[in-house]
Specification:
With 199 residues, the protein is an alpha+beta fold. It has two domains: 132 residues, Ribosomal Protein S5, domain 2 (2-Layer Sandwich); 61 residues, 2-Layer Sandwich (Alpha-Beta Plaits), CATH 3.30.70. Helices cover 33% and strands 36% of the residues. It has five helices and ten strands; from the N terminus they run E-E-E-H-E-E-H-E-H-E-E-H-E-E-H. The strands form three sheets. It has a five-stranded antiparallel sheet, with helices on both faces. Strands 8-10-9 form a three-stranded antiparallel sheet, covered by helices on one side. A hairpin with a 5-residue loop joins strand 4 and strand 5. The radius of gyration is 23 Å and the shape is elongated.
């Protein structure tokens, strides 16, 4: 059974949006990400692709409850870019998402309120084109058991609706499963019991 704490909202695929104000153009790109490494890769890619842009501002949230996050102004006045972008992720309760907004300066200063509105609007437009999905946070467990215990173990895994990622059957059997994070400790206890019972 999935617990509410296992479920999080994210986006199904990359998407984009745009906002224009007084000649400045704000191109927004949203990506599903799982790690800070994914974030760095996407930001670097956009910096290379839009090397002639003035700013590449971004924000991300990672983790079921958005435990890892960052907002980056990339040279814009403090809190005028990264924070409004992050605000869009927070207002839609999205995590495991990165939004990068690439700015081409149009020659006219927008001022602090104008910048905040522009970055927020660009991020909002990207998310308006996103397919938002619910996912379950899972943990992987690998365990060994004797061949004699196979039927019991497989029956139990079926009851638990555990997702089997890999299995190897020999004199000693090895299985890797994915289970909702909130069930991981219970499953570990059960695995230890299975091992003890079949010794």
């Amino acid at each position: 059974m999935n617990q509410p704490g296992d479920i999080y909202k994210t986006i199904a695929a990359p998407c984009s949006g745009v906002f224009k104000d007084k000649g400045s153009k704000f191109l927004a790109y949203a990506f599903p990400v799982d790690t800070v490494g994914d974030v760095k890769q996407q930001v670097q890619h956009l910096k290379k692709e839009y090397f002639d842009a003035r700013h590449h501002c971004y924000a991300y949230r990672i983790g079921v409850h958005g435990e890892q996050w960052r907002a980056n102004d990339d040279g814009e006045p403090s809190s005028t870019a990264g924070k409004p972008i992050l605000g869009q992720l927070l207002s839609q309760e999205l995590t495991n998402v990165l939004i990068v907004v690439v700015r081409y300066f149009g020659g006219i200063q927008l001022g602090v309120p104008g910048l905040i509105n522009a970055y927020r609007s660009a991020a909002s437009d990207a998310l308006a084109h996103a397919q938002i999905v619910e996912k379950t946070a899972k943990e992987q467990l690998t365990f060994c058991f004797s061949y004699e215990a196979m039927n019991d173990v497989m029956k139990w895994l079926k009851e638990e609706k555990a997702e089997i990622l890999s299995q190897q059957f020999d004199a000693e059997c090895v299985i890797t499963i994915a289970v909702p994070r909130s069930r991981a400790d219970d499953m570990r206890d059960r695995i230890e019991r299975v091992k003890r019972e079949k010794r």
